[in-house]
């Protein structure tokens, strides 16, 4: 999904470990916040309880975007699932996560190479 707000997401359904992986690109700021919020709502409504959000390709992540990610985490935890934020140590999103005390991991959890080939990517509209 891409619009004037400059947020793009690609979602992979990884059936083996039973979770969705969302790769974000662009910028999450006040101009793109509503778009970002609607994308996260779609992730929350998916039939998977574990969602992995890859933030490596984000050029900017505002504090309000982090708040929306934490809302998604809370909703998934109410259903017995969880949210994993993935962000390399040297990426822009990691700085705001660190400043706000939000944990992130450096690589996608438990995704063996063959599974990555089998997963089907789809774009959310």
> How many strand units?
5
Q: In which range does the helix fraction lie? A: 25-40%
Low-pLDDT runs of 5+ residues are: 111-125
Give the biggest sheet: 5 strands, mixed
Give the number of helices: 4
Distance from first to last alpha carbon: 5 Å
Shape: globular
In a few lines, what is going on in this structure?
This protein has 125 residues and is of the alpha/beta class.
Notes on the structure:
The protein is built from 4 helices and 5 strands; from the N terminus they run E-E-H-E-H-E-H-H-E. It is of the alpha/beta class and 125 residues long. The chain has a 5-stranded mixed beta sheet with strand order 4-3-2-1-5, with helices on both faces. The longest helix is centred in the middle third of the chain and has 16 residues, at 63-78. The N and C termini lie close together (5 Å). The model is unreliable at 111-125 (pLDDT under 50).
